[in-house]
Write a structure and sequence with these properties.
The chain is mainly alpha-helical. The chain has four helices and no strands. The protein has one domain. The termini are far apart.
């Protein structure tokens, strides 16, 4: 019983660590997104910013896939499918509850 409690605490600590990374990526992407909403002509000229946004979003998806793989104990392709489903569901819910933002 004691070993089970220790394993659950270790799992919770692992989840907390990944939660910090998620917050970091969200904060990192916010300025990039706000710069794209400014002026369309300026956004076209910022190729480096576009590449940076692509890298951060790709890394964020890889983190989600890793979390799903570790949490559910599935292989990487299944975790990637879960990640895509998670993103699609998130976007659909955002459109339903916040249509002015989507």
């Amino acid at each position: 019983m004691f070993a089970g409690i220790l394993q659950k605490r270790a799992l919770c600590a692992k989840c907390d660590k990944h939660g910090e990374y998620g917050a970091f990526f969200q904060l990192l992407v916010l300025p990039l997104i706000f710069n794209f909403d400014a002026d369309p002509k300026v956004a076209e000229e910022m190729l480096g910013l576009s590449i940076m946004l692509l890298i951060v979003v790709s890394w964020n998806l890889a983190v989600y896939a890793h979390l799903f793989r570790e949490s559910f104990g599935v292989r990487l392709p299944a975790a990637m499918i879960l990640t895509v489903c998670y993103i699609v569901i998130t976007l659909m819910v955002r459109k339903i509850f916040f249509p002015e933002i989507a």
